[in-house]
Amino acid sequence: MIRPASFSLNEQTAVNNHFQNDSKNYTTQEIEEKSLFEFDQFVIKLKAQEINVEVFQDSLTPHTPDSIFPNNWISMHQDGTVVLYPMFAPNRRQERNVDLLAHLKGLGFSHYQTVDFTNGEDSNLFLEGTGSLVLDRVNKIAYAAISIRTNQALVNRFCKLFNYQSVCFVAKQTVNGERLAIYHTNVMMCIGTSLAIVCLECIDDLAERQNLKKHILDSGKTLLELEETQINTFAGNMLELRNSAGKAFMVLSTQAFESLRQDQIDLIEIHAEIIHSPLYLIEALGGGSARCMIAEIFLPRKDFVKE
């Protein structure tokens, strides 16, 4: 997780991230203080459940207002591969920090190779990490909502390199009466070990909707369907984590949690304990939530001893 140095609304991403809302009620200092408080409280809640969290402090220069969302520029894999991704907003490309990889190596994580997709930016082709790709790492399926930030050719390239099957579709949300493309797949679906949480209502094409549902059920997962109104409060932006004892947790924001019905909460709790934390300002200005704030470290660790 990246602790921000100068979090603010990013006008370069707001053009197609319809979850972002400018807040005129806070000064710049108040935004920085409140976003840091929300970030720190989230980390405290994760660590309280013995979830290993590595926090990296962002720097003031270059100015990267969205550095709090590292999952868009990097993904880390069990074979020691790190993938770097091409991003839509020019000021987000400055978030890519190779020093982070050196730091992880110092913590005992092994990094054997880097796959670099960032030259896609030269052709305006984008694939924004695990925002664009919702990965079922066990069944090797990559789910992707195609949009300006999720190029299908790059999805296919990723799948070929990592031997994944791609399941692509178009997801939309209603904005001022118009059906517009959702900017990231991970705001409308989450894939856990045994539970998939998806807003099928966001997929207008019924054949694509049925195809997504079939792949989820065929992979052996229980399906929890969300409503589009719940997506608007970031209920789709969840992530399953495990602590040092292997216990599963479903992580989401308090706003997302409060949008869930009791039957949905009960179903999630069959599969994982829920952790929620208030992220109201980060969600409003950043247009991302709990899942976006976490880049999972699947790299092998040298000091790991299997019991």
Walk me through the structure.
- It is a single chain.
- The chain has 307 residues and is of the alpha/beta class.
- It has a single domain (2-293), classed as L-arginine/glycine Amidinotransferase, Chain A, CATH 3.75.10.
- The chain has helices at residues 11-14, 28-48, 99-106, 129-132, 152-162, 206-218, 228-231, 254-259, 262-271, 280-286; strands spanning 2-3, 56-57, 74-76, 81-84, 113-116, 133-136, 141-145, 165-169, 172-175, 178-181, 189-191, 195-198, 222-225, 239-242, 248-253, 273-277.
- The strands form six sheets. A three-stranded mixed sheet has the order 3-4-5, with no helix packed on it.
- Strand 3 (74-76) and strand 4 (81-84) form a beta hairpin.
- The mean pLDDT is 94.
Write the topology of this structure.
Layout: E1 2-3, H1 11-14, H2 28-48, E2 56-57, E3 74-76, E4 81-84, H3 99-106, E5 113-116, H4 129-132, E6 133-136, E7 141-145, H5 152-162, E8 165-169, E9 172-175, E10 178-181, E11 189-191, E12 195-198, H6 206-218, E13 222-225, H7 228-231, E14 239-242, E15 248-253, H8 254-259, H9 262-271, E16 273-277, H10 280-286
Parallel strand pairs: 1-2, 4-5, 7-8, 12-13, 15-16
Antiparallel strand pairs: 3-4, 6-7, 9-10, 11-12, 14-15
